[in-house]
Design a protein that fits this description.
This protein has 250 residues and is an all-alpha fold. The chain contains twelve helices and no strands. Helices cover 64% and strands 0% of the residues. The two termini are 36 Å apart.
Length: 250
């Protein structure tokens, strides 16, 4: 079975249809995961720890109503916890200062006063809450390693001119990063997400895989034999919904 967890996991997406509208909680999660990504970059985090932080955040709100806790506090704790999980440890002081600068551009680092220590304690206590809610299952398989292998294989299949004239690789990586604004990481398998973003990147630039028409099975099924076209279409649809929200949310 492809879908993982509840349908609303990872963002509260509305059901697919001609009149799709993102649910209010999906907009909240979009904004907060955007904060996680931007803060993660400023903290010097690599792509996998940032992806882990987003996944922890989405998984937490699969179990807990978004109104129950401050999403940004959960996000800060997710960054802190992801740093531990992926062995790229972060100081709570750095997370607090980067977050403060995010919400108050140009502001000075916070003084080590009672407000600072209260916020630090909140992050640590929230981290423990997240761990309990997720039953300490905070290690995830991400699509990144699969996408890397698939890109290498595809590069060998395509002629050099097609590969060099189109930024397929850059686009696929960007789409994978953007997918963490929603709950794809919880609803679909890592291999399937990797294939789907590569499939969409090829479509964007109109690049066809050589001998596709003559092949016994589609190129994407060579990478993942349990993958089907409807699954790819569902992942692409979710990605398009994320980009639609991106144009609507300031």
């Amino acid at each position: 079975m492809e879908a993982v967890g509840q349908d609303s996991c990872g963002g509260g997406d509305a059901s697919r249809g001609t009149e799709w509208r993102p649910a209010p909680e999906a907009r909240v999660h979009f904004r907060v995961t955007r904060f996680i990504m931007e803060a993660g970059v400023k903290l010097g985090m690599q792509s996998i720890p940032i992806a882990t932080a987003c996944t922890i955040y989405h998984k937490f709100f699969c179990e807990i109503n978004v109104d129950a806790y401050d999403p940004y506090l959960v996000a800060m704790s997710s960054l802190y916890l992801a740093g531990k999980v992926e062995e790229q440890h972060l100081r709570t002081r750095d997370i607090i200062n980067v977050s403060n600068r995010y919400f108050h551009p140009g502001s000075e680092p916070l003084e080590l006063d009672s407000h600072f220590w209260a916020l630090r304690d909140s992050i640590v206590q929230c981290e423990l809450l997240v761990l309990r809610v997720l039953r300490f299952q905070v290690s995830f398989q991400h699509p990144h390693k699969y996408l890397l292998h698939y890109l290498i294989s595809l590069k060998n299949w395509l002629n050099r001119y097609s590969w060099q004239r189109t930024p397929i690789s850059i686009t696929a990586w960007a789409m994978l990063r953007d997918s963490y604004h929603g709950g794809l990481c919880l609803r679909f398998r890592a291999q399937h997400i990797a294939v789907a973003v590569l499939h969409l990147a090829l479509q964007v630039y109109g690049v066809e895989v050589p001998a596709e028409a003559e092949a016994e099975k589609p190129w994407w099924q060579v990478f993942s034999d349990d993958l089907t076209k409807p699954i790819i279409d569902n992942i692409v649809s979710d990605l398009i919904q994320i980009y639609t929200m991106d144009t609507e949310i300031p």
